[in-house]
């Protein structure tokens, strides 16, 4: 359960890498450079090499399911949203020693977050939606 499978394309699809979810459902994924970012039902955020399938870094990012992930391609920022009411922004560094650092966190009281998206390409603004709500919450960095 929760496996991430990479396929090669062409005339036919061929499985090239299978990353084990370790029993946790993988509810959202993102890609940045040679990295795959997975958000899990356990609240973990895991980063894998797309070349080898090996885990590079892991964080206990949220207290509940991660429901959305987005990546600001130009900066390596990751946005994660969860049923725990938190949206968090992480800074990802690539290279031989991948690192991930929490750089910002927002909470929307009494709202299980279900969607999140960077509004700007560099990650300076993002929006979130929640379960059973007709509002979109916007956040911008001054």
From TrEMBL:
<dbReference type="InterPro" id="IPR049546">
    <property type="entry name" value="WDR54_beta_prop"/>
</dbReference>
<dbReference type="Pfam" id="PF21031">
    <property type="entry name" value="WDR54"/>
</dbReference>
<feature type="repeat" description="WD">
    <location>
        <begin position="59"/>
        <end position="100"/>
    </location>
</feature>
<keyword id="KW-0853">WD repeat</keyword>
<dbReference type="InterPro" id="IPR001680">
    <property type="entry name" value="WD40_rpt"/>
</dbReference>
<protein>
    <recommendedName>
        <fullName>WD repeat-containing protein 54 beta-propeller domain-containing protein</fullName>
    </recommendedName>
</protein>
<dbReference type="InterPro" id="IPR015943">
    <property type="entry name" value="WD40/YVTN_repeat-like_dom_sf"/>
</dbReference>
<feature type="domain" description="WD repeat-containing protein 54 beta-propeller">
    <location>
        <begin position="2"/>
        <end position="140"/>
    </location>
</feature>
<dbReference type="InterPro" id="IPR036322">
    <property type="entry name" value="WD40_repeat_dom_sf"/>
</dbReference>
């Amino acid at each position: 359960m929760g496996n991430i499978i990479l396929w090669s394309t062409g005339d036919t699809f061929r499985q090239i890498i299978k990353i084990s979810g370790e029993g946790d459902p993988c509810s959202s994924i993102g890609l940045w450079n040679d990295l795959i970012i997975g958000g899990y039902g356990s609240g973990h955020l895991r980063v894998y090499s797309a070349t080898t399938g090996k885990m590079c870094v892991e964080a206990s990012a949220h207290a509940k399911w991660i429901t959305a992930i987005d990546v600001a391609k130009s900066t390596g920022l990751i946005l994660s949203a969860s049923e725990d009411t938190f949206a968090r922004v992480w800074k990802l560094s690539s290279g031989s020693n991948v690192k991930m650092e929490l750089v910002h966190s927002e909470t929307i009281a009494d709202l299980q977050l279900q969607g999140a998206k960077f509004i700007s390409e560099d990650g300076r603004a993002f929006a979130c939606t929640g379960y059973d709500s007709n509002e979109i919450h916007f956040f911008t960095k001054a």
